[in-house]
Each structure stands twice: as structure tokens, then as C-alpha cells.
């Protein structure tokens, strides 16, 4: 059975609603129906048109998250991915609607249409005027079913907002319904999934995908899509989805649109932002004016990885209704944007300036070694990532690879002298590696480079002094010491061995190999150490048995230097 943070699968809907209501000061629950509603409604005669929606649970924050002044009056929750009962919908209508009546916003699924439709009929027999607005925004079904049979998916949230704002402005039942229907007709959505969701109590996900497969054109109930295809870059997926919506909704360069980038439940904010970027770039390339953007998980499918894109044609009235205030907790707020991505020039400082000298006697050799080290780090990325994943956060390999790429991008003049090469490499790494490795390496290299500024052809003693200065710069900056299971467990023994060999009169190559041997021994020894600093320290004893990735990286690049001397 899959793992969920629940109590009993049979009680998840009620307990979810109780949690939503407990975290709000304006919501209440109906005692015997799974309905979240505004707690302090005015007297029936003074109530505006009630806007009610709902459906199966599992779409959180929809629908209860959109109950609030200026949006939904009530949300009716069925079991997971199951329409609520007719009686539950009827209870919501009775609880919220006054003489002004109620608009029911219904996603176009058979169960929802039947139960909301019958509840509307029963309410009307009780003298409560009711209008139904059906949302069928899934354009992926354009070649599969007739338009009136398409599914309602994430774009429905925009209709909730428009209808709720219209009602809050005091518009009549027929006006609210007509405004919402016209908006629904100007709306198109389409989704993509990287995997399936898992229902509470189920043994596993609803379907399986290979690591390079996606489902394109899916609903919001864990079902497969219209098409299974090979995964593509985010920009390509945006183009495919948006082109389908634009063609289906006949969106032209004269149209203004709102864009909704909606997560399906297990999609990171990072990925959604990348999809937003791709969508914005494509729409602007098509000369379509984007007026509003919302990005986040607004209507999910439990824990499904993936997202949907929605486009809504806008006019001044729809913009105003989308911009109107609401107290609904899950509404993401203003979607106003700049019509051009803003970029501000990076401020420059003196530390960014490097005056490259004429090439010294070691320039060619230093460049060869530097580039060999960078390539070795790139080759070792999978190994370093694996080590850091087992006893850290898994980012070491990728971080050092970015640094290696920055080294390979250095111009030939950056390798002119030992000092220039060290300082230029340090500056490149601090810009390329934003984690702890970047500042550590940069500080060490820059200090070592400064020590050698007056020496174009250092001997073993000068190199050993510079190495020791660099290693201790890392200790000073990070506050670590030997034995804490860090890169210093390779660097500090190496610095001592290098110094001792140089003072003993060993050649530069021999002295450096002695340093390499000490670094390797120290790095391997970290496997028996309990981490005291860094993210590995959060694992405590669980990290023992795996050597520190940062220390192993030191041993790798040091040996690569030795192999190229």
C-alpha cells in the first residue's frame, strides 16, 4: 500500500475539510454533509447570488480553498475523484442561497452534471432560483469527442473567480450565469503528466510510465492521457499544448489572454516556473498579449506529477473580475505582470577585474593541467553525485561540473602565470558554484594566487606554501577542522605532506605525489567518520561507511594534476 499522511482512507474527505475549516476564521462545515461554506452569511434577503461548485475530492486546494467572499459561497466535496451526492449539493444550495438564487459551476463529468443538475431541479421546486454553468475546457479531446462532451479541468478555477466576483458586485442571477458561461466558452486547457497518482488506500499508482514517457492530454482523475509519447523539453511541451489551445479557441494576435500554469499535485515550483517561462516566450513569439498570469497548484490530481496550461480570452470586464478582491485562501492573488521581462545590469566591483599579464614560462603547462583537471571533474560527476546522494544532498557532482565548465571557458590569457591562473579560476568557481563548494574553492585559490603574485616560476617550497595557505583559508572560512569529515580531511594532510617533501628536497613532481597520496588516504578515511558539519551532519551515524564526496573530489583533481606534471 502506498504511503500517505492520513488516518483512515474512509475518512479522508471529512478530515481534509475539517483541516481547511480549522485554518480559517470565515468558513464552516455543514454538520451532516461534506460542504464547506461561508460561516457568516447575511440574512437570506440580503444575500447576493450564491456561487457553488465542487466535485470529487483529491483536487485540493479545489474546491474548498476557493470558498471566500468574492469567490465561492460553498464547495461540495465528494469522495476521492467521485461526484458528490445530489443531497449534498442540495444542502449547499439551501444553506447559501437566498431569493437572489444560486449559480452552480460544474465541471463537465457525467456524475457531476447528474448530481448538480438534479439538485438544481429540486431546489427550484422549493422556490430557489438556480442556474448551471458547465465548464468543458479540455481541448485535448477536440478530435475525440464533440465539444459539449469535453472534460472540465483546471481552467474551472478562473470561472469560479469570475462568477464569484460578478456575484459580489450585486449582479443578477442571469447576469452572473451569462458572464460565467461566456468566460467558460473563451477558455481552453490541456495537461501533461510525468506519472500517475495514487489514491489513498490503493496499492500503487493508477498506471506505469517508462522513465522517458509522458501522458499528454489528460483529465484530473488520475486517468491516462489522449496520447503517450516520449518526454520532451519544457519549451517544446509548452509549444505543443499552447498551439492546440490557440487553434481550438481561435486565439489571434488581437486577443488578450490570461495564462494559468497549474500543477497537478507533485510538481515542484521550480518546474512550474520553467513551464511558465516557456509559455510566456511562446505566446509573445506569437504576438499574443498576456495580461494576467497565475502559476501554482490550483487544482490538483492528488500526487500526480505534471501540469496543465490554460488560456482565457480577456476583455476589460473579465480582467476587472479576475482582479477583484477575494478572501478565498487558495486564490493566488494578483496576476498582473510586466509586458516585458525586466532585467537589470549586474553591478560591477573591483574584485571582478583581472589585469592579465604577459604569458610566463609556465603558461602552456598550467593551461594544459587546468583543462585536464576540469575534464576529469566532468568525467567524475556521476561518481561524486552518487557519493553525495548517499551521505548529503546530492548536488556535489553537478555543482563541481558547473565549476569545471567555467574553467574550460576561461580564455588562454587566464593561464598566463600561476597567480593569474589561480585567481581567475577562483573567480570563475565562485560565480559558477553557488553552494558551499564555490566559496571554499574560490577563497583558497584566490589567497594562494595572491601569495604567488611575485613569482612566475615557483619551486616546490613556494607551491607548498601557497597550497597550505589555500587549505587553511578553507578552514578559516568554514570553521571546520580535520576530523569533521569534510574536504579538509584530504586537504590538510596533503598540505603537511607537500610541505615535508618540499623541505626534504624532493622534486616538485615527487613532493606533489606525496601530497596526493596523503589526500587519498585522508579522503578514504572519512568513510569511518561521523559528520560534524554540513548537510551530511543531519544524517549522523547513517553517513558512516560512505566517504565524504568533497574530500574524494580533492583527491581526484590532485591526482589528475600529478598525472599531467
TrEMBL record:
InterPro entries: DhaK_dom (IPR004006), DhaL_dom (IPR004007), DhaL_dom_sf (IPR036117), Dihydroxyacetone_Kinase (IPR050861). Transmembrane segments: none annotated. Residues 8-331 form the DhaK domain. It holds the Pfam family Dak1. The keyword Amino-acid biosynthesis does not apply. GO terms for biological process: glycerol catabolic process. Residues 332-357 are annotated as: Disordered. It comes from the Bacteria. GO terms for molecular function: ATP binding; glycerone kinase activity. Residues 364-563 form the DhaL domain. Keywords: ATP-binding, Kinase, Nucleotide-binding, Transferase. The keyword Nucleotidyltransferase does not apply. GO terms for cellular component: cytosol. This is Dihydroxyacetone kinase.
Amino acid at each position: 500500500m502506498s504511503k500517505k499522511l492520513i488516518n483512515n482512507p474512509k475518512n479522508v474527505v471529512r478530515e481534509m475539510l475539517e483541516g481547511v475549516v480549522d485554518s480559517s476564521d470565515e468558513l464552516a462545515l455543514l454538520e451532516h454533509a461534506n460542504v464547506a461554506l461561508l460561516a457568516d452569511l447575511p440574512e437570506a434577503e440580503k444575500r447576493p447570488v450564491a456561487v457553488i461548485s465542487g466535485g470529487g475530492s483529491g483536487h485540493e486546494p479545489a474546491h474548498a480553498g476557493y470558498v471566500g467572499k468574492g469567490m465561492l459561497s460553498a464547495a461540495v466535496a465528494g469522495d476521492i475523484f467521485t461526484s458528490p451526492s445530489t443531497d449534498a449539493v442540495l444542502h449547499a444550495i439551501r444553506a447559501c442561497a437566498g431569493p437572489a438564487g444560486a449559480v452552480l459551476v460544474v465541471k463537465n463529468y457525467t456524475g457531476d452534471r447528474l448530481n448538480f443538475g438534479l439538485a438544481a431541479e429540486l431546489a427550484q421546486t422549493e422556490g430557489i432560483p438556480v442556474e448551471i454553468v458547465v465548464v468543458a475546457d479540455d481541448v485535448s479531446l477536440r478530435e475525440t469527442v464533440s465539444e459539449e462532451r469535453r472534460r472540465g479541468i483546471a481552467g474551472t478555477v478562473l470561472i469560479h473567480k469570475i462568477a464569484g466576483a460578478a456575484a459580489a458586485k450585486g449582479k443578477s442571477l442571469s447576469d452572473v450565469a451569462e458572464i460565467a458561461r461566456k468566460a467558460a466558452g473563451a477558455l481552453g486547457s490541456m495537461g501533461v503528466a510525468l506519472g500517475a497518482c495514487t489514491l489513498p488506500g490503493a496499492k500503487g499508482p493508477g498506471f506505469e510510465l517508462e522513465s522517458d514517457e509522458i501522458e499528454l492530454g489528460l483529465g484530473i482523475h488520475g486517468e491516462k492521457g489522449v496520447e503517450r509519447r516520449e518526454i520532451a523539453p519544457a519549451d517544446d511541451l509548452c509549444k505543443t499544448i499552447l498551439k492546440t489551445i490557440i487553434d481550438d479557441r481561435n486565439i489571434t494576435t488581437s486577443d488578450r489572454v490570461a495564462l494559468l500554469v497549474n500543477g497537478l499535485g507533485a510538481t515542484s515550483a521550480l518546474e512550474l516556473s520553467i513551464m511558465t517561462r516557456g509559455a510566456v516566450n511562446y505566446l509573445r513569439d506569437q504576438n499574443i498579449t498576456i495580461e494576467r498570469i497565475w502559476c501554482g497548484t490550483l487544482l490538483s490530481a492528488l500526487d500526480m506529477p505534471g501540469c496543465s496550461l490554460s488560456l482565457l480570452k480577456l476583455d476589460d470586464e473579465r480582467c476587472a473580475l479576475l482582479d477583484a478582491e477575494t478572501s478565498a485562501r487558495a486564490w493566488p492573488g494578483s496576476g498582473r505582470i510586466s509586458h516585458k521581462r525586466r532585467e537589470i545590469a549586474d553591478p560591477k566591483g573591483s574584485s571582478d577585474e583581472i589585469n592579465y599579464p604577459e604569458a610566463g614560462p609556465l603558461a602552456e603547462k598550467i593551461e594544459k593541467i587546468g583543462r585536464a583537471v576540469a575534464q576529469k571533474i566532468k568525467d567524475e560527476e556521476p561518481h561524486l553525485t552518487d557519493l553525495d546522494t548517499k551521505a548529503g544532498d546530492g548536488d556535489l557532482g553537478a555543482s563541481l561540473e558547473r565549476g569545471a565548465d567555467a574553467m574550460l571557458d576561461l580564455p588562454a590569457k587566464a593561464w598566463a602565470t600561476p597567480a593569474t591562473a589561480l585567481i581567475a579560476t577562483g573567480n570563475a568557481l565562485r560565480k559558477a558554484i553557488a553552494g558551499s563548494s564555490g566559496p571554499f574553492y574560490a577563497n583558497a585559490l584566490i589567497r594562494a594566487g595572491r601569495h604567488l603574485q611575485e613569482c612566475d616560476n615557483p619551486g616546490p617550497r613556494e607551491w607548498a606554501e601557497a597550497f597550505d595557505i589555500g587549505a587553511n583559508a578553507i578552514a578559516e572560512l568554514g570553521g571546520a577542522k580535520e576530523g569533521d569529515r569534510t574536504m579538509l580531511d584530504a586537504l590538510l594532510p596533503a598540505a603537511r605532506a607537500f610541505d615535508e617533501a618540499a623541505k626534504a628536497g624532493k622534486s616538485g613532481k615527487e613532493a606533489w605525489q606525496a601530497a596526493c597520496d596523503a589526500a587519498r588516504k585522508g579522503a578514504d578515511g572519512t568513510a569511518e567518520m561521523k559528520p560534524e558539519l554540513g548537510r551530511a551532519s543531519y544524517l549522523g551515524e547513517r553517513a558512516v561507511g560512505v566517504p565524504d564526496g568533497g574530500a574524494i573530489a580533492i583527491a581526484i583533481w590532485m591526482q589528475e594534476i600529478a598525472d599531467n606534471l
